[in-house]
């Protein structure tokens, strides 16, 4: 019985400890992000898809989450991993009114 | 035998009448068919335009921030400060000196003029329709109208008055105490309330109803067929709506459109972002035919020159050039149609009342 319980505990630890990283998609359309705020887990990825008729340039200067996707033409898509806890403020360099807050939790 | 004279006289008249009829009837037929064709074409223009027109409806109200709502006392205080040249070191320059209501809230110059009559680096932008706009300045360095308002006051090149001196001057004028008490009763007179008041006034400066708006609302003959073709071009071949979109004809975006010069614009704030180099804020096109010259450097003297510039796809091809810029291949007729359309964006606005300044 004890061995079964130990095996169960080990199995659970392995399964729960190595949950696959999720992917979240944020669209850009009508010069806005499809959401203004999201909460994700550390290790997850956010896919930025340009579903608009103009070029965008998604970037962040938030400490620990700096990135610059450079220009994305309509139709382009790029994934950004978010490792570590914190908050990232994402904007479009061309259209600064486009803002997205990403909350990253463990 | 001679024919009677009367008979000889009738023959040429009858022939003349027949000749005239022969000429006039086809002409009349041509005119009628043109009229019906243009009537049909007029309806076609409206049908073609309709999918784009929905994007240009005016909003029903004006946004004010939660911590700086509109009251008539705040508008009056803001207007008073806006027109007060004592907010400059020289006691000569007010906000309204450069943002002149008589010149569509700009100054009609290629480059602004500041302290000591020195020319500034960029053209004075209009303050029309900024309630919906952020960020502010050609390079977007101010996040809000409140953040922007005191920049020119303190700038040595512009009004050249350090803000502590500005506050001392305002507080020394008894009339201002009453104005501030009515506008911001629960706040002390401070740089914050000065900026808030100016921002509140600026939010009330909005382009009025233009012929274009009447057409958007359904009045088919509010603008000419030529202007309607111009509107179609604006949204399609001429590519203008990529940046000059919606009812304000700007998306407040930053673009390098290929103007020559060293001014990197927004690139100074974001040196690592290539697309921001030489990028400047797209201004509103409302009432634009009242605001020559054009561009951040005032280099285009007329709307015709602007259209020509865009038709070429911009002058300087560099890595930061906006992907929306490309040669357009517009015909002379299409350029005329675009111009006709731009002129429909002009409203006849009620003049703003110049305040009597407190002494």
Quick summary:
The complex is a heterodimer of chains A (106) and B (359). With 106 residues, chain A is of the alpha+beta class.
Describe the overall structure.
The complex is a heterodimer of chains A (106) and B (359). Chain A has 106 residues and is α+β, with helices and mostly antiparallel strands. A 5-stranded mixed β-sheet of chain A has the order 3-9-8-5-6, with no helix packed on it. Chain A has a single domain, classed as Cupredoxins -  blue copper proteins (Immunoglobulin-like, Sandwich), CATH 2.60.40. In chain A, strand 5 and strand 6 form a beta hairpin. The two termini of chain A are 34 Å apart. In chain B, helix 1 packs parallel to helix 10 and helix 2 packs antiparallel against helix 7. Chain B is 40% helix and 1% strand. Chain B contains 12 helices and 2 strands; from the N terminus they run ααααααααααββαα. Chain B has 2 domains: 132 residues, Cytochrome Bc1 Complex, Chain D, domain 2; 133 residues, Cytochrome c-like domain (Cytochrome Bc1 Complex, Chain D, domain 2, Orthogonal Bundle), CATH 1.10.760.10. The longest helix of chain B has 49 residues. The N terminus of chain B is likely disordered. At the A-B interface, strand 6 of A face strand 1 of B.
């Amino acid at each position: 019985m004890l061995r079964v319980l130990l095996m169960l505990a080990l199995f659970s630890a392995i399964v729960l400890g190595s949950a696959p990283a999720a992917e979240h998609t944020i669209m850009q359309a009508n010069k806005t992000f499809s959401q203004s705020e999201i909460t994700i887990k550390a290790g997850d990825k956010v896919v930025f898809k340009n579903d608009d008729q103009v070029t965008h340039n998604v970037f962040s200067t938030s400490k620990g989450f700096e990135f610059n996707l450079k220009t994305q033409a309509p139709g382009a898509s790029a994934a950004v991993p978010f490792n570590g806890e914190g908050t990232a403020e994402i904007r479009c360099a061309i259209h600064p009114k486009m803002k997205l807050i990403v909350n990253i939790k463990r | 035998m001679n024919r009677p004279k009367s008979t000889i006289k009738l023959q040429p008249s009858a022939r003349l009448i027949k000749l005239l009829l022969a000429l006039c009837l086809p002409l009349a037929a041509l005119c009628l068919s043109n009229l019906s064709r243009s009537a049909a074409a007029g309806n076609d223009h409206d049908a073609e335009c309709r999918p784009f027109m929905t994007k240009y409806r005016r909003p029903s109200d004006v946004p004010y921030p939660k911590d700086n709502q509109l009251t008539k006392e705040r508008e009056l205080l803001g207007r008073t400060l806006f027109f007060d040249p004592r907010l400059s070191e020289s006691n000569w320059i007010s906000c309204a000196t450069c943002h002149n209501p008589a010149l569509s809230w700009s100054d009609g110059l290629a480059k602004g003029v500041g302290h000591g009559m020195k020319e500034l680096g960029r053209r004075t932008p209009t303050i029309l329709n900024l309630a919906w706009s952020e960020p502010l300045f050609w390079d977007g360095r101010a996040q809000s109208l409140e953040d922007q308002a005191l920049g020119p006051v303190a700038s040595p090149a512009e009004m050249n008055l350090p803000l502590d001196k500005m506050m001392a001057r305002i507080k020394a004028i008894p009339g201002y105490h009453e104005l501030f008490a009515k506008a911001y009763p629960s706040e002390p007179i401070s740089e914050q309330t000065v900026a808030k008041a100016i921002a509140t006034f600026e939010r009330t400066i909005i382009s009025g109803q233009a012929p274009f708006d009447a057409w958007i609302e359904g009045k088919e003959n509010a603008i000419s067929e030529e202007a309607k073709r111009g509107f179609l071009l604006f949204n399609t071949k001429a590519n203008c709506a990529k940046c000059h979109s919606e009812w304000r004809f700007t998306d407040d975006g930053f673009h390098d459109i290929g103007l020559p010069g060293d001014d990197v614009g927004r690139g100074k704030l974001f040196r690592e972002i290539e697309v921001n180099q030489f990028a400047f804020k797209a201004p509103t096109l409302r009432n634009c035919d009242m605001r020559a010259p054009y561009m951040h450097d005032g280099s285009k003297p007329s709307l015709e020159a602007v259209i020509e510039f865009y038709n070429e796809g911009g002058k300087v091809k560099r890595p930061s050039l906006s992907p929306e810029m490309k040669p357009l291949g517009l015909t002379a007729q299409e350029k005329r149609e675009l111009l006709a359309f731009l002129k429909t964006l002009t409203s006849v606005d009620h003049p703003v009342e110049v305040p009597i300044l407190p002494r």
